[in-house]
Structures are given as structure tokens and as C-alpha cells.
Design brief:
With 71 residues, this protein is of the alpha+beta class. Helix content is 14%, strand content 34%. It contains one helix and three strands; from the N terminus they run βαββ. InterPro entries: P-loop_NTPase (IPR027417), Small_GTP-bd (IPR005225), Small_GTPase (IPR001806), Small_GTPase_Rho (IPR003578).
Length: 71
Amino acid sequence: MTSNIDLVRKKLVVVGNGNVGKTSLLYAFKDNLFCQDYVPTLFEGNTHVIDVDNKRIELLLIDTAGQEEYA
């Protein structure tokens, strides 16, 4: 198990216009699933751990709503 000292924490925020696939992109990255049906943003902040260049990185994945009524 990797200790907290070896764990790098970063935030990944996805922004963009509404109905372009931000939430679907995050689900595809995190769970290897892609939903083709449009569902307004339901993806809340989730963490996902990846290994890059022999480093363990914990990403806080943050989705944003792209519809103007949420801006």
C-alpha cells in the first residue's frame, strides 16, 4: 500500500458548453463506461487513482454544468 507521502493529489475540472459530453467523458475515464443518453450533470466530485511515471496520483474529478441557467 502506498503511503500518503507517496500520493500526489490533483484536481481535474472539466468545463465547457452544455450537452457536449463533459459528464460522459468523466464516466468514461473513471469507470470505462460511456453513456450516450443525455442526462444533465449528475457527476459529483469523485476521486480516481492513476499511476503515471511510477507515481501514484489521486485525481479529484470535478464536473461542471454547462447550461446557461446554471451559470
